[in-house]
Amino acid sequence: MLALMLGWSLAGQLAGVSFPDTVTVGGKDVLLNGIGLREKYFIDVYVGALYLPAKTGSANQAIQGDVPKRIVMHFLYERVTAEQLNETWDEGFGKAGTTSGLAELKGMMRDVTAGQRIVLDYAPGVGTTVTVAGATMGTIAGADFMRTLWTVYLGGSPPTEKLKKGMLGG
Fold it and tell me: Which of 18, 63, 65, 129 is the right S-S partner for 139, CB 3.0 to 4.6 Å?
């Protein structure tokens, strides 16, 4: 009721984590497409959110579109080290079949703790801006890198099917 009276709303909530229904990426509004839980060995690691210009349940459309978009990882686990994150990137990029841009991404990782976020913003013509725990770490140019990164989450071998399904609105 309070949210309605103040003129704002939270479009999604999972595991106690809320995400706004819209955010701005590259000067354009994008919509919360879906949220999912990343678990490993029955441990809740993070809640992932996907933002796109228009909602879709199609992984291919979400990956291929050269449009503003965002992936957010809101960490639940008490501490995930940069080394652990980089091992996960190695695995995901290996499954995606390329390492282009991987070294640059890995160089941007820092330890994260519960409540912190990694935000991956893609803006056409600019690239993918990586923010870790509120600090902008840099931008990796190119739509090809973005497509590989989005494939890590939404392709044929995502971290978990549950995370992918949730981010695609299922």
Answer: 129
